[in-house]
Design a protein that fits this description.
The protein is an alpha+beta fold. The chain has one domain: LytTr DNA-binding domain (OB fold (Dihydrolipoamide Acetyltransferase, E2P)), CATH 2.40.50.1020. Helices cover 23% and strands 42% of the residues. The strands form three sheets. It has a five-stranded antiparallel sheet with strand order 5-4-3-7-6, sandwiched between helices. Strands 8-9-10 form a three-stranded antiparallel sheet, covered by helices on one side. Strand 1 and strand 2 form a beta hairpin. 21% of the residues are buried. The model has no long low-confidence stretch (mean pLDDT 91).
Length: 124
């Protein structure tokens, strides 16, 4: 199944290949897209719009997770979460690590999701 999103505005088309995305980062009314290849670009759409498009596209396989107001990560790229240090580490295709700084409650939700704890138990 092809997992590409197309965002169109004012005669421009932005194509985002979800299979290559490590994470999205909000920047006001824009979103930075970070690919596992090391590529990075910005699209003129807010993270909420991107999140809605991802949710619609990946209705059966929700491997992206919104983490707070700033990030949406590909959970397949997360290899370490430390709630005490308030960080999540992701890895790209070249073995480079990316550190995201997040609040403890957000990281605990991520830890529960990655370890398979049902969401109702995680939110209780």
């Amino acid at each position: 199944m092809e997992s590409k999103l197309c965002f169109s505005v004012y005669g421009e088309l932005f194509v985002v290949d979800l299979d290559r995305v490590m994470y999205f980062q909000a920047d006001d009314h824009y979103t930075h897209v970070y690919y596992s290849s090391g590529a990075h670009f910005m699209i003129p759409f807010g993270l909420s719009k991107v999140e809605a498009a991802v949710d619609e596209k990946l209705a059966d396989d929700k491997y992206f997770m919104r983490l707070g107001r700033k990030y949406m990560v590909n959970t397949r790229r997360v290899f370490h979460v430390n709630a005490i240090k308030q960080i999540a580490l992701l890895v790209d295709d070249h073995g480079n690590n990316y550190t995201l700084h997040l609040p403890k409650p957000v990281l605990r939700l991520l830890m529960d999701r990655l370890s398979g704890v049902p969401s109702s138990a995680a939110e209780a």
